[in-house]
Design goal:
The chain is mainly alpha-helical. The protein is built from eleven helices and no strands.
């Protein structure tokens, strides 16, 4: 009898906790985020996960909503591995820089596409009050996200580390850290390509990883 009473009291405590003001305060935010995922087709009307949602689950190193849209819209299909690496650097680089990268016409087109996708996602989140309306726009327009695109592009094409440091005012350690994180992003996009059944993208991401994973960025420590 004592054990049964203890079980009932435990259940009562759990119910009180689930109905507490602290939990209820988070409910509107949760519902707003769910609605964003529905509008973007990451989940269906019954909250069942869709293909976009499965892809987003693979993304941990960058903005999973924007990057998933980029992958599922097949934007990366027209780019070579070095160009893809440069475009994906926007998802991991967030440092301050005064340098304006010199980009090819294709990279400029890719930059605009990423910005447009980010603005679309941003507008949906603002509409559902997940984020506040801002004059600065999305994270990809209000921050120097594209500051290392030229550096990463030239690095992937084989330029030496000494020469790529002359292309930007970003510190050497930040460049190494960005390329290391970019390798992880490439791996995540490669896994996403496997999920959606895109062997061409899978091969391109594997090639991009090989291109950037070399020299100083591939050592365990910068002090070796």
């Amino acid at each position: 009898m004592c054990h049964d009473q203890w079980l009932i009291k435990t259940q009562i405590d759990q119910l009180r906790q689930s109905l507490s003001n602290q939990n209820l305060q988070l409910l509107p935010d949760y519902e707003q985020r769910i609605q964003v995922l529905k509008d973007l087709s990451f989940i269906d009307s019954a909250s069942r996960i869709q293909l976009k949602g499965k892809v987003a689950c693979e993304i941990h190193s960058g903005d999973e909503l924007v990057l998933t849209e980029l992958i599922l819209d097949n934007v990366l299909a027209e780019y070579e591995p070095a160009e893809i690496a440069a475009l994906l650097s926007a998802f991991v680089f967030q440092e301050k820089t005064q340098s304006e990268p010199t980009l090819t016409a294709k990279l400029e087109k890719g930059q605009k596409t990423i910005t447009d996708i980010a603005e679309k996602v941003n507008a949906i989140q603002v509409r559902h009050q997940v984020i506040l309306q801002s004059d600065e726009g999305s994270d990809f327009t209000s921050r120097p996200r594209f500051g290392l695109m030229e550096v990463v592009y030239e690095w992937a094409r084989g330029m030496s580390f000494k020469n790529i440091t002359d292309l930007t005012d970003v510190l050497e350690g930040t460049i190494v850290r960005t390329i290391t994180r970019l390798d992880e992003t490439c791996r995540e996009v490669k896994n996403a390509a496997r999920i959606i059944g895109d062997p061409e993208l899978y091969q391109k991401m594997a090639a991009a990883q090989e291109m950037i994973r070399r020299d100083i960025t591939a050592v365990a420590s910068l002090y070796v």
